[in-house]
Write a structure and sequence with these properties.
InterPro entries: Flavin_Rdtase-like_dom (IPR002563), NADH-dep_flavin_reductase (IPR050268), Split_barrel_FMN-bd (IPR012349). By secondary structure, this protein is α+β, with helices and mostly antiparallel strands. It is 15% helix and 45% strand. The protein has 3 helices and 12 strands, in the order H-E-E-E-E-E-H-E-H-E-E-E-E-E-E. Strand 9 and strand 10 (131-143) form a beta hairpin.
Length: 170
């Protein structure tokens, strides 16, 4: 990497990350009675004691300021059956919640048909670079056993349930 300029390094990083398969999440919150949400892949479990996770949100994202003000948020793990929700959330219009079965639980929007929904209270916020890292402590969790996660890879959705299986005896 000797002699690589900053912009080239950033582009190389983007190219590398495009080839990391990632589960797709709809991160949602409520602020002043209004629902907000974005698609995210920068979500990770953090700890089992206390049960917690972290969500990285770009500070220019429409969700950022409402999530900064809110004390709760939900990480909805999208399944293959939620692709319509993912596609709606990619549009720059305010009616992102016009598709899907949304209910309010613990004062946040929860997708009833998501593979899983993890409702959190905000425990900590940390700004780093272009993003804020939100650490959420779990308040409630819902899970459906019959869902396959919606996965993003190289700028497209893939079905990991149809991935070729390796023969363990080979």
């Amino acid at each position: 990497m000797h002699g690589v300029g900053h912009s080239e390094l950033v582009e190389n990083f983007r190219d590398a990350m495009r080839h990391v398969a990632a589960t797709v999440y709809a991160v949602t919150t409520m602020d002043a009675g209004q629902r907000y949400g974005i698609l995210a892949t920068a979500v990770s479990s953090l700890s089992f004691e206390p049960p917690s996770l972290l969500v990285c949100v770009n500070r220019t994202a429409s969700l950022h300021d409402p999530m900064e003000r809110a004390e709760r948020f939900c990480v909805n793990v999208l399944g293959l059956g939620n692709r319509d929700v993912a596609e709606r959330f990619m549009l720059p219009r305010p009616d992102r919640f016009g598709v899907g079965e949304w209910v309010d639980e613990h004062e946040v929007p929860v997708l009833a048909t998501a593979q899983s929904s993890l409702i959190c209270k905000t425990a900590h916020r940390q700004v780093f670079g272009t993003h804020t890292i939100f650490i959420g402590e779990l308040l409630a969790a819902n899970h459906r056993d019959d869902a396959t996660p919606l996965t993003y890879f190289d700028r497209d959705y893939i079905d990991i349930s149809k991935a070729p299986q390796r023969d363990p005896d080979a």
